[in-house]
Write a structure and sequence with these properties.
heterotrimer; A alpha/beta (354); B alpha/beta (430); C mainly alpha (317); A: alpha/beta; 30% helix; disordered N terminus; B: 430 residues; alpha/beta
Amino acid sequence: MAIDVSDRTVAISPGEPVISARDVRVWYGTTRGAIRAVDGVSFDLAPGETLGLVGESGCGKSTLGRGLMGLLPEGAKRDGQVLFRGQDIFSLSAKESYQLRGRELGMIFQEPLTRLNPLMRISQHFEETIKQHEPGLSKDEIRERALEALRLMGIPPTRYRSYPHEFSGGMRQRLMIALALVLRPAFVVADEPTTALDVLVEAQIVQILNDLRRNFQTSLLLITHNVGIVAEACDRVAVMYAGRIVEQGTVAEVFKNPQHPYTRELLRSTISLSTTGLNYIPGAPPDLVDPPDGCRFHPRCPQAMNVCATQNPVNMERPGGGRVECWLLGPDEQVPPGGKQPLKQEELTVADEA
Amino acid sequence: MPTKPETRADAPALVDVRDLSVHFELRGGTLARLFGRDTGTIKAVDGVDLRLRPGEVVGLVGESGSGKSTLGRALLGLVPATSGSIHLRDQNLAEMSRRQLRAIRRVVQMVFQDPNAALNPSMTIEEAVGDALRVHGMKSATERRAGVVQALERVGLSPVELFLNKYPRDLSGGQKQRVVLARAIVLNPTLLVADEPVSMLDMSVRAKILQLMLDLKHDLELTYVYITHDLATAKYFCDRVAIMYLGRIVEIGPTEEIFAQPRHPYTKALLAAIPEPDPDKMVPRDLPRGEIPDAAQPPLGCAFHPRCPEAVSGCGWESRDLRTLVEEHWLRADAAYDEERRVIGDLDHLDTPSTTATLGVGGSAQVRAILDRMRTEDVDEPLWSGVTAVEDSGSGVTVHFEPAPPPPLRRAGGVEVACVLYPDEGRPDA
Amino acid sequence: MRRVAAGLLKPFTETAGLARWMLVAGVLLTAVFVVFALFAPWVAPYGFAQTSAHGVAFPKLGHPDSQHWFGTDRLFFDVFSRVIWGARTALEVVVLSIFFCVVIGVPLGLASGYYGGWFDRIVVLVMDAMYAFPSFLLAIVFSFLLTNVYGGSVVAVSLSLTAVYIPQYFRVVRNTTLSAKEATYVEAARAIGATDGRIMRRYLFGNVIQSVPVLGTLNAADAILTLAGLGFLGLGIQSTDAAEWGHDLNRALADAGGGVWWTGLYPGLAIVLLVTGLTLVGEGLNETLNPTLRRRRLLPVVMPGRAAPNLVEEERS
């Protein structure tokens, strides 16, 4: 399976990326100043590829997803460049980006029930969605399309005329996925799609997401806090901390040889069936109104050096492929003299805990 | 790993739950009440036996709707027992008055899943923890403060002065859960019911809170009931594990044996569903279909049989399973759907659980043909082995299934399993 | 101390634009009347039922002049003084009726929502019946009944206003209790062994009371109008007992035909201004305290220029 995953990525990555994000920033205005929820993030997504975005809560992963979709609350501001098939989607007009959404960019949310209209049948949901973007289709064609999408999600055609409340939680999430995919968008953001679900249903949905590539050739940005799900369903992974992607690469590579201390600590603190000892990351993610200078992880980092507290780490080619931002990996020529000495850190107590 | 040298198998039970049932009356909608329709009962806990020895950690594991939280709440008397008994040492909680139950909560305490909701937003930390003491009659404010300070220090919230006057909104998730733990231990309880205490917390602090709970158990000689849906933490945390499904325990035994050799298909499925972060250890897996069924109308026979990958003839097949099977067939038979739908007609009447199922409107021969096609499609489908007869009836057919009682818990190796695949190993049983 | 001050200032610091302007204007308007009410003996040149000063009788329906800024009415009273004293009457009645509403309505709503069952059904039925009754009619009926018991006093009028407004307090508190009692912290309180009374006092009260201040200010505005209405109909407080704007308006009705405008204009203006002030305060508070309406004042986001090195590094690969 592991070999399978890396092979596929190698086969895909030479292609033109579907999404190419460069130095994306999304800041929220508050009464205290701007929250730098996403602060300079760059990544590429190849056709049919699934990129997992992991990190602790409050690291900006959901904000990044919503920012790409243009679904931000009032008072938020985004900049940077996001090329979707060569077109910068951040500079589109409201109308253009509305037309792009749904048709080319899809979104799957955490709580499906709040996104479905309880008074509309499933069939009506599909009709509404499809008609909005492809007005020419007849009712039969719409039905055909919808049933096909439902079938791929494992929802029997007998349920086409049902109402949302007649479905169980897992079925509703499948419905949402079917609705998001019925127009065959090239890029889908899934924001914690399994968090509200039971273990077995979660595993079913992960399997469905896993099959997406095969059935729809959709590129997926899967936002989750569960590294296990990333390992199961993603080709590549981007680890986010305090508004920045600190490490990205193929899942096999990153999880086997984590380069960034945060990735390592995050993996170590995850409790799985093979856990034999309890590990945790001391402290809490920083306040993003006023993030620490230098590397944002340095107050919690077990390997922090003097340079980490003063200078931003440089985005580097990651040994083994991918990218990483950590002074441990250089570039050494930019480290000031004495910068490699271990940093004297303040002791983190429960008062700083997440 | 947590060990328990202080517990012995023959030690007298701290808690002895026998044949406990907790049923909730379903209040139907306005129409249902107007027409006096049967509104049904949910058997949240249905005939559960559970013994806790002093000092052990017992895990109640299952999906939502399995009754694990209700069982945990019943141990505090927070939900009334419908039948059966809950003995705490020699007192029966099931027969106690509300006043007596309030006194019991000195001894049995609870930790909640969502630390953000478990603390009153308008009370400071000192008030929140101190209120437990106040409720149990500690009038002196100085004594209360001393107790609160001690409890907060115990859970690692020091320097205490930093926290005493804070409101819950000023604390992080992990800190709030520590406060909840402090409130639980401030009364010096013997039993702590922890309902998913870490599942709402961030990955990076889960381990820390679990470690704290282990330390507390050791220092204060606590007994834990650990309620969770997460087998990974249960494996690390518990001495014994009880797997629950739709109000019943389907497998119970020592943690090591359950994880090394899971017997019940549901346990196996839960284990297989845990995503493994190490890409080297990943295995392709066969997941059970569907979701936890409606608890108001649980499946006949073994409650897990509709989803069970190992089901056999005697699992209690019934009308709703036939419906699922027909729908699954249509999921595959894309082209034939419209025509077959005309022959089969409506399926909604099959939702009333019964061991006979009548279906079809387009002639019994045609219906039989479709059923045969379905059968050849998947010869191994266990439902067919549970069919005793298929008769013509009107323009359709009636399918008869072999009735089966729900399997009781029976000894198998070092554990007890409720599954027809594990018949009795020599204990007198019905 | 500081936290209390910050809490009191919160409505001002956390609102922006129109909401803030409304709040400030409302508070200023209301404050003027509160000052009138509190310091009426010093602000008003004469008593509310005074007909002469220094041995000189006031003129009947005298034009506004330097002696009587707002003129005098047909009972020889000084209109300006009666407007000032009227503020005192109005605020007395309103404060008292809101006090009764809170003291009776809040505990009743709390108990009704918490216990549910037949007790809840009966109380809800009674309150709904009162609410469905045309409110002004209800005030008139209660006013009649209570005047027989207490005479035309401030207490009697306050109690009849209480009857009009209490269902609102009851409903708001009952409904918030219904949802708050399902919260985990209530179950947690039960788990530590707290009694029902304690749960209501210590855990629910502080959380269900939050919408009462807004309701109070909005009702106060409405209560001023109802009070004036009662006075206009000649019910409630008599002119010699206290100055009451509605009652003064009633008497001014006959004057208007004769070109005497000052007896009606000034009490009327006082009613309009106080009602406006209180409404503005209520709406302003609502915007800040009600989370569904609240728009927090956000600092504009200013993004500094791009962090260029990262881009260069990206493109090099």
